[in-house]
Structure formats: structure tokens, C-alpha cells
Fold this sequence. Notes:
33 helices; six-stranded parallel β-sheet; 970 residues; eight-stranded mixed β-sheet; alpha/beta
Amino acid sequence: MGVEPARITALLGPTNxxxxxxxxERMLAYPSGVIGLPLRLLAREVYDRxxxxxxPNAVALVTGEERIVPPRARYWVCTVEAMPLTGEHDFLAIxxxxxxxxxxxxxxxxxxxxxxRGRHExxxxxAETMRPAIAQLVPRAQxxxxxxxxxxxYAGSKKISRMPARSAIVGFSVExxxxxxxxxxxxKGGCAVVMxxxxxxxxxxxxxxxxxxxxxxxxxxxxxxxxxxxxxxHVAFSATSKFDGRRMRPxxxxxxxxxxxxxxxxxxxxxxxxxxxxxxxxxxxxxAVTEHRFEPVRRLEWRNPELDYRSPAHLxxxxxxxxxxxxxxxxxxxxxxxxxxALAAAPExxxxxxxxxxxxxLWDVCRIPDFRGISHAEHTSLLTKIFADLHEFGRIPDDWxxxxxxxxxxxxxxxxxxSKRLAYIRTWTYxxxxxxWLDDESHWRExxxxxxxRLSDALHGALTQRFVDRRTSVLLRRLKQKESLVxxxxxxxxxxxxxxxxxxxxxxxxxxxxxxxxxxAKTLRAAAVAALGPxxxxxxxxxYNAPDTELDYTEQGGLMWGEHAVGKLVKGPExxxxxxxxxxDDEAGADVAEKVTRRLQHFIDRKIAALxxxxxAVKGDEALTGLARGFGFQLIEALGVIPRDQVAQDVKALDQxxxxxLRKHGVRFGQFTIFMPLLLKPAPTRLRLxxxxxxxxxxxxxxxPPPGLVTIPRPEGLAEGYAAMSGYRPAGAxxxxxxxxxxxxxxxxxxxxRAGFEANADMLSITGMxxxxxxxxxxxxxxxxxxxxxxxxxxxxxxxxxxxGTAPEGDTPVMDAAETQPEGGIIEQPTPETPADDxxxxxxxxxxxxxxxxxxxxxxxxxxxxxxxxxxxELAPGTAPDAEIAGPEMEVFYTFTWGGNxxxxxxxxxxxxxxxxxxxxxxxxxxxxxxxxxRRDDGPKNxxxxxxxxxxxxxxxxxxxxxxxxxxxx
Length: 970
């Protein structure tokens, strides 16, 4: 009875038909078997699956860079190139048999199709397009067609930003893959990256990111079209052409179908389309892919398997032999054949290849893949070195090999650096797998594998760090699963969601962490704000119940809650009625925004009511009627400070009763300003400037002057009205506080402004100025300052003053004291209000308003008395003997006289003449009545023909008017 011939089966059909799964089940039904797979990535996946079913001792894994062979291995999982072809296995299978037409590797698959057989069963897995070729080359083959479990539909073109979850975007270069992955990270939170150049360890780790749901997107090369089983719903092509090693060419319908077929697993339908700059697919291609109808393979790549090792020349000739079957076409020159030609042409190697063994060794060395992708010359140089060592020593020197491995054993650097090192170590891993090339093969296999694993892990970490935003991807996944996210805000304001810090909460606005672009920020914000809803509500309740002491306003109109800005002031219908605009994210909701707005409005309303209480009392006083009420409203509109010249006529129109009613509210009628002293304090002044700037519509609000200064540098470049709102009046190079100016006006009214007067200690003390600064101030108020010098009379020792508190005649301590005053004149305590500052209606009715009358004729200077010469021995104690030689000590003094309206306009840059001076000149009380000045009846008199002016009645209650009456009686 004859032996039954081995069964040969061609299991053909599109993707997602379960062909590989079926082949594995058939192999495990036999005592032994071998399966050849197109990629080491897929080989590793199948190996792990069989190990789970039969255990690690029963399964071997052999690829170009990895070799795991237990002593009693029964099932072998290999790449097609690394398959053992002993014919001792009961079952043999070749997956993706349509790769017989691949220009680079097709000749290997064709050889396996024609020559590899199992003892009992051989199975070829692949596309239906291989049916005619298999039927011609393997006549005994039985065909089994498998139908796809699910449908595949064309979805057209989609932007990456609109790509559905569980999608794969396919690129055809490393640069293209990285660019797409970066875009996915920004817009979708991250993606996994799968490329054929990755080590199995890196690829598996990246696939696990996707399969576990950590990311919803996969960016890959066409390597995913070779049997990788992934949970894909959609496949998008970022390009429809690729570089095949020699030229750019369009993808065939078969290639598109092979990759697109990875969408949809088992009975779940899938879709495919294009994205980015890829052109939409034609109707013919779409129909071919969806219907799985492709042109049959008409040519298979072939290279002569019968090699002649007599010499390198004979070997090259055998490799270039042509097939005798019209279905087969000679494969183009591969890298190994090119390396063989280069080494055979080297003169130094000619003497080393004199036997079949030498030629076979040379061919084995030339088949080392150029994983590094370096230049052909560098790769040839490496092969020359390895062949020379093997030929001369029978092995590769351990020390040299150790240096090559150690050079790559570093995990620092970025993705490109790690990828390059990984490619280099793959070369040494391949060398370590060759039998007899190293002394301690097992050691170096483990060593190179350990280095590759370390580099693989480092590369996986670098890919994940660059292309996966874990916090965003985790938040999006939880949101997609409709799970509630728990947000927590720590004491630093950091928002932590599910253990990830996603940003900061500044008041009622969420500031997400730094992101690469707007797309990523939008994604992160969508995830974070969804979890912050309850937090916004709790925060608004706490804010609404917070005391006013936790809130404040800035000099630019901002509203603060602690260190966070929660709103700003905006212009309202009146200066004292500003509105608020809350800073609340839209995602917080209208209720939160309304609550925050209401609380801020309460705060600013109460602040205004407290600081401007005297002013608001004027508005609410029903007893104020007529002109007094109208003037009160003017004062309210001016926020409590009005320069007198702006309302001079209105002030004159007020009778004494109206003034008294306003004085009860703290209104002070000064010579220069009408104001309320309580509103000059630092807090009301700061708020008044904010309200005034807001009402005037200023873009940048001026700051309030430092508190406590009597004078400040004259404000320049600021809006008109700033000085008054800040409580100062410009005069000369500086501005003086308006309440201190009124105190100075009291002093000036008692001086003879026509004949001239000098500054006394009180004047300089009030202003806190030096004599030079005071002269400039007086010039700004309309006075002329005439500078002079005179001999300074020094005090004499042991001279007893005539009375306590008086200085000897001629002594001028005023100048020394004034010059020691600090600039700005800081006043530590508030100055009490002086009722005498108020000007009576009678005084206002005079042409020279509010100023005491001056003598009819100016005082003449006293005649100089002759100075007697004193002998040196009779000098008074304390006088230097050489005083006469050195000359008297000189001092500077100023004589101030009224400069008239022209002078006032010249010195005051705002064009405001000094208040209270009317249209005439200020009049003082005249000079002293004793020595040093003429009496009133001594000098010439002027006579007029017109009748004398009728004097007005003097208010008996006005102390200043009584003083005038007393002077006239004298």
C-alpha cells in the first residue's frame, strides 16, 4: 500500500477571513509544524499566542535578529527567510504568499512556494490574486476560498481633526509618520506609532497603548497590512504613492486593499478613506477594494536557488541565472548580491576565496542585512572586516565585537538617536545568531538581546513622551466612557483631575497647562472644564459669602479676590455708580457668573458708600434747597473737589445761610478750592482717581500720589483734572496739597502784597519747602519773587532775649529752619481745619476778594544807620578777630509782591489765576506802624472827583470782618 502524498492547500481570500488563525489551529493539530510569516513583528505575535496555548518549551522563534529555540521545540514560528527547510515537520505554512510579487523579497516567497513542503500538509495563505500562479506552479494544490467576516466601505476624505476614534493613519516614510503623530497628539491627546523598523518589543509596547485604550489612534507604515490583528474601525491613507526603493509609484489597488482590510475585525464592519493631502481614490479603486476584486498576479519574482560555490564568479553567475518559466521573472539585484559583487572585486579578498567553503562563507557574510541604512561603501567595509576575521581566525574577535555592542548600549538621546542605535544593534544581533561566528554564542545572543531590549524600552518611552499626552488621553477616554471625573483644586490653585495636573484655577477662570498649540489646548480644556462644573459652583458660593476684607480694587479698576482677578469696573451712569464685569469662564454657567457679578457690585457699592459718606449725605439731605442743593450736586459730580475758579459765580451767588448748610456737611470754601477735607484722605483719594478715570474713559488710570506728602512734582502728561482729583494744585515746578494751600493762603492774607513781604517760618513749615522752592511756588500762584542778598547778622554770645519765644531784631532763623525741610514735606498727622480759611461774602464782594486792605502809599525803606568801627580788642564775645577782613556773611532772601493777572497766567501752566483775587491786586494790611515805616498820614494822598463808594454792611458774626473793622477804626 503506497504512502498518501502530502496535502497542499491554498487558503485564499481577503483580510479578516481568519486565514492565519485557521493555519495555527491546523498546525497545532499535528505533532510538529513550522509557519513562515512576512514580518518578525507578526512572527512575535504568533509566537506569543502559541506559547500561551502550548507553553514556552514547545515553541521556537527564529528571525534574523532573534532566536529562541528550546531543546524540545515542536512548533517553529519564523520569518520566511529564517524558516528551517529540512522537511522534517508535519505541517508547513507560508503566510501572505502574494508577496511572491514583491520586488525586494519576492524571490524568497517564490522559492518557498515551489520548494518548501510539510510531511503531511502544506498550506499557502494569501490573496485570491495568487490563484492562477499557484495553480500553474503547484498543480496538486487544492484551493479553499474564505469570505470576509465583515463589510468594508469607503468613507472619502476626512481631516485628521475629524478622524473617528479607533482609527489608523497610514504613512509611507518615517518623517511622514512622525508629523502625523505630532498632529494627532495636539488634537486628539496622543497616538501609538507602529513601523516595521521597530523592534518587536517596542512595537508590542506601542500596540498595547492602542489596544488598552490609552490612545484612540494609531499612526503606522504599511507594515500593519501584513497580518497585524488590531482593533481598527477606520483606516486613512495620508498618501496614495510610496517609494519602492528605486522610484515613487502609486499604490496598487491590491496594496490599498491589503492595508484597508485591517479596518473591521471579525463581524464588525470597517471603513477606509484618505486624509491630509492625499487625493480621493478613484471609483475603480474603491470598487475593487470593497468588492475584493483585484488583477491576478502575472509575474513572480525568482532567483536561482541552485547556487554554485566554486568561486565568487560562479556564485554571481548562478544568482543571475534566468528562469525557464514564463511566469517567473528574475529578481532585481538585491543588497546581498550587490555586496557580493563589491567584495569579489576587492583584490585583497581574491586570495581568500579559493575554495567552496570560502565562497560559501563570503556569501553568508554578504547576506548580513544593512539595518543601519548607511552608505554602500561603509556597509561593504564592515562586511570585509567580518569576512577577513572569520577567514583568518575562524571567528570574530570578542574584544572587537564587544566594542561594537558597547558603543550602542546607551539609552540617552531622542527618538532618532535611539532608532539609529537600535538599527545598529540589530546588525550585531543578526551576527550573534550565526552559528560558529563567535566563541560564546549564547552570551552574545543574550547580551545583544539585552541591549536591544533596553533600547526598545527607551524608544517606546521616547515615542510615548513625544506623541502621547497622557493626561489629555486619559481625560478624553473617561469622558467618552461617560464616567464622572473628580476635580480637585489644591491650595496652590492647581487643578488635578484623575491624578493629572491639567492647569490652574485663577478666580473663576481656568488656565490650562502649557500646550503646544490651540488644538491641544481646546482638547484639554474640554476635558478639564467638564470636571470643573461642580468646583465652579462651590467656589461661587464661597465667594458670595466672603467678607469685604478679602476683596479689593486696583488703581487700574481691577477687582481682586485675594491674589486673583475676578472682575473689573466699567463705566456706569454716574461717576459714583460704576458697574462691574465679572471674569468668569463661559463653561462655569450663567448662574455662577450672575452670582459673582452680584457680589462684586455689592462690594464696590459698599466701598463707595463708606469712603464717600460725607458726599452722599449731601445728596440725601432734603433740607438743602435752591442754590445750595444745586451747588451740592455740582460737588457730587466733581467727587468732592472743585477748583474755585470753575464755580466762582455760583459761589458768589450763595448766601450765608446756604453756605452754612453746606458747611454742616463738611464743605470748605477755600480761596483756591471748594472741597471736603475728609475726602482728601488716602483711601477716598485712591478710589476717587479710579472713579474719575473710569468716568473719563481713560485707557490707563493714573496712580494716586504717595500719602502724606504736602507737595509733589508737578504732574506732566496726565489728563486735565488729575491734579484736583488727587487733592493737589499745580504751582510752579511742584503741586501743593489743596488743604495746605489754604493754610498758606491764611498767611498770605496778613501780608502786604503791594509793598512786598518775606516768607516767614510758618509759610515754609506749611509747605515743607526750601526758600528757593517756595519762591517757585509763589511764582506759580501769581506772585513776583525778587531775589536779593544781605549781610547776615549773627547772634551775640550771652545776649538775653527780650521775651520768651521772640528772636532779637535782625536775626533770621527762618531761613535756616526752612532749608532743613525735606522735599515734599511729609505730614505725619492730619492738619486740623481752620475756619478762618472760609471767605466771607463781604470779602468776596470786594474787588480784591478775601485779602486785607493795604496802605494807601507803599512803605519806604528805613534809612541806613552808620556803622561805627570797633577796635579788635573791643569785639563782642563770639566774633572772630578777622571778621572785618573776611567781610560779613551774606544770606539770600526773596521779596514777594503781587504780580497781577498776567503774572498768574504766566506762571500757572493751567491758566488759572489765584482764587480770591478777583480782578484787582491783593491788598495787605500795610507795613508795621512803628519804626521802619511811615505813618498813614505821612506821605502824599490821592484825591478823586467821584463820590466815595458806599461800604457794605459787615457781618457781625464773621471774625475776619471784625478784624477789618478794627483796622479801619485805627
